[in-house]
Specification:
mainly beta, three-stranded antiparallel sheet, 2 helices, 4% helix, 16% strand, elongated
Amino acid sequence: MGDLSLEDFNTATASTVLAGRSEADGSFNGDVVLAVEAQTLADHAVAGIRTVGQGAPALLGLGQGAPALLGLSDNAGVVGVGTAGVIGRTDNKRSRLPPTFDNVGVLGSSFGDQLAAGMIGESDVGYGVYAVTTAGTGVRGDSDNVGVMGSGLNRFGVVGQSLGSGVFGLGGTVGVRGQADRPACNGVWGSSDNGIGVLGTSLKNVGVYGQCGARPRTPGVAAGFFVGPVIVVGSFTAYGAKSAAVPCDDGTYRLLYAVESPESWFEDFGDAQLESGKARVDLDPKFASCIKAKGYHVFLTACSDCNGLYVSRRDKTGFEVRESQRGKSNARFSFRIVGKRKDISAERFASAPSSNDLLKAVEPSLKCERFKMPEQPKRRKKRL
């Protein structure tokens, strides 16, 4: 076997072995068997091209303990172009890549124990793994257990950024799951400058579910916590008291509870004055447009001495008040108007499922075992 010079071609049809030995006994003590350095503006330091024998790799590296192929560059260390550009495996078993993927930029597969990895990306400052696509999916993970797992000591385990969906999860049980075991940490964090921070939808079950404590109705802080206005498009049902926390003069907050009714009513208040024993009170036009014109109630309270008050007439725009016993005083009075809501039809004492029945309906979706992070492999010391 002769030496190869620049621009020489190896025309051998069998294997050609390049080996470096520096010790007198023939042992190898260097870090690399073959080192190629490009000091010009050439595109590639090493290029492997297979023109015949389709199906076999152009470059093959097998190593134990240290990398078989190592690429160092200011741009891309290793670039692979092909049906599978770069393949990384931990044994000789066939890949489990689905047949629908005919072209793969990088394929990593592992069939060893839990500490084996098909692909590892590591970075001290930048990105351990960075994937870009113009039309498809940047990173996709499929597994019988965990498709994609990211762990971060201080910031983020997985970050997804896209003009469409940054992170998309599709699963038989849980599409995307977040879990935080340390205090003051967040299982799932969603933020947006203009869109929706966290969006939950469901065709046949619950779009968003919040629970405090290990099980439903166990002690905790709150199942949901909102800072700012809360909007509900639809009916609102509470299996408990509805109250407002109001500050008092002593510096404490006290709960004041909502007045409930078996039907949906609106009410308005005001005051007026008799003139020679009678008065006409017009409904606020906005209030009148919200209630049914027929059958609203008026409650009167005299604020000065008189023979008594009664409502002599009601119509869709207002009502008339007269003094009893044909009195002619100019007494002042206050009134309370109560009318049925016009835009919905609320059944009187409508039935509702029990809270236990509702929890049973969503219970199958809540049976997700707590995820235990697998043991992280120890990092090897960097070789100088």
